[in-house]
């Protein structure tokens, strides 16, 4: 699914971007995936302070539906699922880097 091609029409490109990564959790999920490359669900849950299981699950599904995160399921016992950024998701890394730099400069 293309993030900005849903039925709703956007009035500006920033609105499209915010639709894809808007909110506190999506950006953090993408940030931790960018650091480690691949993470399992529980690893993401432990990395993101304060996120609930339901919220993490919902946000991962939205990111996957928008083509930003890849979900790899391994059929084994115990079940194993890994998440990583897609090529499209990787294109947002410069935006996340700039957000991180801005935060570092203004956290003081």
TrEMBL record:
Alphabetically list the UniProt keywords.
Answer: DNA-binding, Transcription, Transcription regulation
Q: What protein does this entry describe? A: HTH-type transcriptional regulator YybR
Q: What SUPFAM superfamilies would the database entry show?
A: Winged helix' DNA-binding domain
Keyword check for Transcription: yes
Which Pfam family name is an example for this entry? HxlR
> Per the record's keyword annotation, is Ribonucleoprotein included, yes or no?
no
HTH hxlR-type domain: residues covered: 12-108
> Which Gene3D superfamilies does this UniProt record tie to the protein?
Winged helix-like DNA-binding domain superfamily/Winged helix DNA-binding domain (1.10.10.10)
Q: Which organism is it from?
A: Clostridium omnivorum
